[in-house]
């Protein structure tokens, strides 16, 4: 059994409006509750399971999920963060079945972005898709009904993740709605990490493609980061570029900074933003 709870108080002020005071969950990291286990079968082979649910500490609700990568289901306890059964070996890697992160989401986490997907500086603000032409993508973070493969460690720093997720639609023109294919390939050592990823989900109203490239470099107490990402929904697209850092100011805290600019095509968004966050504690 495992879990983590994150809650805080937030004040928001926009020009021409009153200040809003909020008690919010997930300001620094994602609150979650789960159960997991593994069984050693011998010969280096292991099987396991992982069930993980989102928890909003401020109101006690759980997260949403999607049964077919097209709809959205919420209410009550769901294992929408992850629900997998996996088999792994140190020699050939790991095979997972169930609901899991898509390959192109890996570069949006704190491995390549100072804030990851939480708080006022969340990478999701600029790197998540915009609904367009009748398509609301549900696979920018996770996909259901997936078959995923992860390469083993020890490949001289190279790593990879490939996924096929099924929409499980009936016969007809929308039979492949919600079907995702994706891949992520990268290389890392003690100071450098870089990877490129792409995931594509088929929809009758317009396919969704998420592609990105991320890099990070450890330079003394600072980790320098760069991230480029594009979301294409039908004929629309948004492209974001970020430069940022995580600076370790003491063993339990760091200063985070990100500068992000975004360009849009065939959709009414054009944003440039600077995000600065004071020293924050990191969970251990």
Report on the architecture of this protein.
- This protein has 284 residues and is mostly beta strands.
- 1% of the residues lie in helices and 54% in strands.
- It has one helix and 16 strands.
- The strands form two sheets. A 14-stranded antiparallel beta sheet has the order 1-4-5-6-7-8-9-10-11-12-13-14-15-16, with no helix packed on it.
- The longest helix is centred in the middle third of the chain and has 4 residues, at 124-127.
- Residues 270-284 have low confidence and may be disordered.
**SSE-based structural type:** mainly beta
User: What fraction, in percent, of the residue positions are helical?
Assistant: under 10%
Poorly predicted tracts of residues: 270-284
Q: Outline, from the CA principal axes?
A: globular
- Distance between termini? 16 Å
Topology:
Elements: E1 2-4, E2 7-12, E3 20-25, E4 32-42, E5 45-54, E6 82-89, E7 93-101, H1 124-127, E8 142-150, E9 158-165, E10 179-188, E11 192-202, E12 208-219, E13 222-233, E14 236-250, E15 253-265, E16 272-281
Antiparallel strand pairs: 1-4, 2-3, 4-5, 5-6, 6-7, 7-8, 8-9, 9-10, 10-11, 11-12, 12-13, 13-14, 14-15, 15-16
In short:
With 284 residues, the protein is mainly β.
Features:
284 residues; mainly beta; 14-stranded antiparallel beta sheet; 54% strand
